[in-house]
Amino acid sequence: MIEPRQRLPVTPRTGRFLVLAGVFICAACGLVYELELVALAAYLIGDSVTQASVVLSVMVFAMGVGSLLAKRLRCRAAAGFGLVEAALALVGGCSAMVLYAAFAWAGDRGEMWASGSRYLFVVFSLAIGVLIGAEVPLLMVLIQRVRRQDAGGAVADLFAADYVGALVGGLAFPFLLLPWFGQLTGALLTGAVNVLAGGALVLGLFGRDLSPRGRWLLLVVNAVVLAVLASAAVLVDDFERAARRAVYGSEIRVAVHTGLQEVVLTGRDRESLHLYLDGRLRVSGRDVRRYHEALVQPALRGGPHRRVLVLGGGDGLAAREVLRHTGVRRVDIVEPDPAVVDLARHDPALSDLNGHVYRDPRVRVTHADAFRWLRGPHRRVYDVVVADLPDPGITASTQLYSQEFYGLVSRVLTDDGRFAVHAGPAATRPRTYWTVDATLRAAGYWTEPYRLTGRRGAHAAGPDRTADPGEAPRDWGFVLAARAEPVLGAARGATVLRAGSRAAERLRPSDWRTIEPSTLVHPRYAD
């Protein structure tokens, strides 16, 4: 049915342009809310593929529900659209703060956060999806009030503006909002733009459709939403500091968002120092020496070690352990985040912990993704490669534990070279750990799995986000690999390898020979 044309304060052509501009802005804001939820879910819960699938599928379903519910508002399309946009701006704009608050102040309850957080993300996905879905039916009514046209033409115009707006919102989120404003302020700013665009369109163009009382009501609602968003923006820095203290403790010295991750450093001396990357504990002053000795010593004692490659390890701690061995002539570190290296160079406690390795002329740093760097042309080969990387269970790191990645490493290893891999906690994630071993064997390596128990640092600094809910990992799992089996024989003389191999053997599953390797197209790291 074609809606009767209404008297407007502008020409029909200008009115149509304004409606489509409103569609464009609202679509951009809607996609930002979606991406914000996906990013937060991946950061706070982990496993980005699963969280993205849940958030997006629930949101698309909710959009269909919202479209059906919007049919009841068609008789008051202008007022309905104005209220929908105000509600969407409030819910979407505040979603990041609410979810981060739940993470910070309920996260230390372990299981409560693990189960409740997923429901909270689903609730926000449903609410935002319903409100986004209600937009198009109402806009369909409004655009036909501006200029009479068939339904097919109106739908084509609306969806063209909607899709272009989604493109702009999708590009603005990673390239503008995140680097310039961060997740919390970016969401609040998006909400402000959303409510201003929706309110201006309804009150400016379709104000005559509303009764005087309706205009005042919509004006007050928009003003309240703007006030809430503005107040939250003013308090966002204090809120973030308080939330960080709840997550990391009171001794936060450095907290920065780089282009790649959030870096947080706590503690003021070697013993109390903790380094977190994206909320996950990566360095603990209490455990750092034991961890890096176990990672590095078996590989370096197994044969020549003039040239050593460290993948990750921008904190300099693996390099410090490497340089303790005589005969090392060159250490190349491939670390993607310059901010981590800068912190390891200049922070007094961290640089003291790593022995000021970046002052050593034998240490060279390349800022690059390890996978891409290995795919490039290389004239240099290494006696030892050390993979000091995040746990394989983290989706962003899955490609660095793939059969293809290990094949690339073999290209830069000498024939008698050794490859040391940090493979995550063996006791709490045994399937993931033994998948690393299976993947290395599939890539043509001989392997020696081993583990180190007695981990302490995770308990000293609050919840470890890499752990199972409510329980921090109590061990580290490693795998020593070589292209020839006799090479491993020489390395087995290391004390930590002999004891660690027996400890790992006790956890070996009965079906370990049939565990499938993880590849780029079929990642298998899940317990």
Automatic annotation (TrEMBL):
Keywords: Cell membrane, Membrane, Polyamine biosynthesis, Spermidine biosynthesis, Transferase, Transmembrane, Transmembrane helix. It catalyses: S-adenosyl 3-(methylsulfanyl)propylamine + putrescine = S-methyl-5'-thioadenosine + spermidine + H(+). The chain crosses the membrane at residues 17-45, 51-70, 82-107, 119-143, 155-178, 184-204, 216-236. Spermidine binds at residues 292, 315. Pathway: Amine and polyamine biosynthesis; spermidine biosynthesis; spermidine from putrescine: step 1/1. It is found in: Cell membrane. Its main location: membrane. It comes from the Bacteria. PROSITE patterns: PABS_1, PABS_2. Homodimer or homotetramer. PANTHER family: THERMOSPERMINE SYNTHASE ACAULIS5. This is Polyamine aminopropyltransferase. The lineage of its organism: Bacteria, Bacillati, Actinomycetota, Actinomycetes, Kitasatosporales.
